[in-house]
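[job 4471] stage=fold_predict status=RUNNING
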Amino acid sequence: MERSLNPELLNLALGQHEILPSPQELSQLLADAELALLLRDQNVPDQLVATGWYLHGIASSKYALRTYGVERHRAAFQVAGHIFDLKLQTPELSEVERLKYCFASQVAYARSSLDPNALALYKREYSKGLSNPRLIPEFQIISLSCGVAFLGFDVKYIYELTSSIEYEVNLLVSTWEIDEISFTIYGAAANVASGVRDLTSFLVYGRAELLERAKGKLRAAITSDASTEDELSRWVAAHILNFSDNLESSTIWNVLPPSVPKNVRKAFINGEPRILTLWPPQIDFLGIEGENNPLSDNAKRLLLSTPTSGGKTLAAQLLITSHLSTKNTSVCYVAPTRSLCREVRKSLQSRLRFIGRRIIDGLPEGAWLNIFLDILQPEVEVMTPERLSYLLRTDSSQVLDQFGMFIFDEVHLVGDEGRGWTLEEDLSYLHYATLNLHHKIILISAVIGNRNHIIQWINGEIENRAPLEFHSDWRGPRRMHAIWTTDAFWNDSIIDRNSRARKYFYNQTTPLYGRLDVRISYTGVTNTFHTEKPVGELVQKAETEDGEYEKDTKKSTPFYRMLVPIIDYLAEFGPVLIIESTKPRTIRLAKAITENKESINSQEILALIDLVKARLGNQHPLIDCLEKGVAYHHGSLPSEIRVALEEAVSNGYLRFIVATTTLTEGINLPVTSVLIASQGAHGEEGYTEYITGSKLVNAIGRAGRATKRNRRDRRIGKAGTA
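[job 4471] inference complete, writing structure tokens
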């Protein structure tokens, strides 16, 4: 949110107009609506909605692009999409209204190059699926449902719904003894359904005739004389027709060069999640012309950097599957943590089976290594930098013979004080050992800040060819940042005297109220909110009543306990990931969250508890937390327990998970909010910050993932200190 609706963008979208609110007024209206939703006051002003429809209508005009230019055209759609997104989160919308606002917002996002927002909107609003309307009497709902599902790329629903509509149309034509349905009031909706089905089939199969047939049906829905009685279906048809004009250039069939085998395209169209079109950074990256194309054999060194939710993972998967389909060497994927390694393996599994390849979960070591490498087909092995270092020390020539492509994820960790040297060692050796060989080395990061230094580092004499660097600031879903701290209400302080104390005879108790500071960057204003009740108390002690008071740490409420109210509040919007700096702190905070919560007796939680008991014993503290629907996650837990916890969050069984940075380096969980509970801890050498720089940005980036099922995109940047 902080980058998507700045004053310049609003000014560009609105232009000069006497009736509409000024850019400054619109900024304030948007900020107020965002804050109202955060405070559960779900009311979007009529003036804001009217402005959204005006911008949407102007941008939808066939003359808009020519009249206003690309930037203003996109700006108008982007602002309109944001307004309708807010409106969708208000209660008491009818089914038609909800579908209409969702479709309008999806169109606006898609037409302003924010494709992930259109997809995320569908997953948020219809995570449990759309209804199954009948042509009679719900023809308008059918058009809207087809449009919403199409922009959400819900292929299964589209095929199921349009099949039932086709059956109903044939039955009506036969019963009414007419030539076709187009000349009736239901014709526009029927043509929309049929056109959307053909468009979907075009995306799935890549046949150009399906695209042209779909356009013809959508035009028929717009121009038929009977269609004038169904303005809503004509509106849907017009937008989908406009959208389809640029659809061909973004399909996976046309973005990938002809040299990429057909089965690679099928791996993404039929795999999970299904990929039918690519996002702008992916199109730009794969569309680089000439010898510098990343899929070309000439591109030996690549650096890919985009923000979180920018599509880096998919780009890497395309490079991997293309390599395995055209080369006779394997791929080595290096990820910093075992959790991320597991996620990479899982996401690749559904792709590789379509090209007859698989993931190798750890090659045999020692004397048997050469035997296995001789009989295996080219595959993918996912490993940590430490394992790669071991393999290179064991037999580096064998590693170079086996792997033709090395992908290093989260490469910014080369600067990590602890493990960075291992990653640097691996990269340095592979770079110089393969300067004049066929090997390809790909570096990926969302938060790398020294791209030029990295490029200079790997800019060796690679057959006189410089490394390919691709960077994009493009980002999909919006996020909101805030800081949680406490305020002491000194006027409510109470002083007590303890005559039996040895030294400090006076105690002053002051209530602490929770304070949330939300800064909307495009307004430049920080909005402060306080809790209605105290979240803790500050106890101070002194020798005399008028003496100098100092904090009594034993009696004062610890700050981690005062985080629980904001954590509980955020959980009402969706799952919450809380990041702590150390393992003991994750356990401590998880226990605090469980207090005053009732036990959860779902079968999934009980099965998870049984696993923990079997692996860690009946008295392990994680069991008590899980019974209340809370989990903690750190590197000392067994691998199978961490996997089970991650799956429980992904499947929606757990709404609270407290973790160290084991879950921040690229792990994609469907969490709505991320709270950074602490960035460091006190030790023998004083206070040390562990979560800073790229680790902090990556942690915050776990919120509001575009392809995950989130009910609302909210982000708490970090907690303050008491």
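[job 4471] summary: The chain has five domains: 1-128, 130-250, 260-471, 477-557, 558-722.
[job 4471] exit 0
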